[in-house]
Amino acid sequence: MKPQFFSRMTLTLLVMAWGTCALAQDTLPIKELPEVTVTATKKAIPEHVWTSFESYFANAQNPSWYSINKNYLIKFMTDDNLNHALFTEKGKLVYHISYGYEKNLPTDVRKLVKSSYYDYDITRAIKVTEGNRLIWVVNLEDAKTLILVRVEEDEMEEVQRVNKS
Fold it and tell me: Where are the domains of the chain?
């Protein structure tokens, strides 16, 4: 169930990232994903969930808490990065997503991406942590192309390429 959840979460992340970057599309037919609706409400947070959140993210600023099913989604800032973290009702971290930029990439990940895409600018760097997995989703752009790559354990995969009009 966790790999399926993570796959859906990654897919949602990719769609959101490209939706904000894509200015124009090719004339190729595009498959549209079904609409995803997340309903959340603000409510009182159990002390043990709050304590767990603070132990992971001591420098979090302006957290907003939401109850989703029996879990708690927290949206917050750290430095200049937007973050989303999901905790179970028992206070266990399910996943953490940090939306950053090229300067937030670790040196080895940046070098790996730039070794293949040296003529492209890195416009976004999204760090996804789930369990023992650490995945970087990197948006690249030049004058004619938008590219989305995924880096996990020193392996890079091009996920999507879109030509600008």
Answer: 1-37+101-165, 42-98
Q: Can you tell me the distance from the alpha carbon of 8 to that of 54, in angstroms, rounded to the nearest whole number?
A: 27
Range 1-37+101-165 has CATH code 3.10.450: yes
Q: Which two structure tokens, joined as six digits, stand for 97?
A: 């997503």
Q: What is the pLDDT of residues 43-69, one digit of tens each?
A: 578 899 999 999 999 999 999 999 998
**Strand ordering across the sheet containing 133-141:** 61-68, 71-78, 81-87, 93-100, 121-130, 133-141, 145-152, 155-163
- In CATH terms, the fold of domain 42-98 is Nuclear Transport Factor 2; Chain: A, (3.10.450)
SS3 assignment, position 4: helix
Q: What are phi and psi of 3, to 5 degrees?
A: -60, -35
Residue 47: which H helix or E strand, with range? helix 47-56
Q: What is the pLDDT of residue 23?
A: 46
User: Taking the model in full, what pTM does it have?
Assistant: 0.72
Residue 99 and residue 49: Cα distance in Å, rounded? 23
CA-nearest of 91, 75, 93 to 130 is 93
Q: Do domains 1-37+101-165 and 42-98 have the same CATH topology?
A: yes
Average pLDDT for residues 78-105, to the nearest whole number? 95
